[in-house]
């Protein structure tokens, strides 16, 4: 653990533009810590090893998208998402969904 980010001072981060985190949900405390200590946008990606590619993310480079803690903004190109529910299992494209 490095709560004060003392190790960061040992590296030249002058060209460091964004921090991309992948895998499981990014917790709010870690998001806020990284944003404050690194001073760059923190982008949370959701993906699984089996996909080999992000499924949902706050995309950078297409157009400015506000990055909000622990909320992925949209499906990534090339993905089709669907949800199973207890009452009505189905699979298909999701037009609007909220996941966190």
TrEMBL record:
The keyword Ligase applies. One of its GO terms (molecular function) is propionate-CoA ligase activity. InterPro entries: AMP-dep_synth/lig_dom, ANL_N_sf. It comes from the Bacteria. Keywords: Ligase, Plasmid. This is Possible acetate--CoA ligase, C-terminal. Residues 7-57 form the AMP-dependent synthetase/ligase domain.
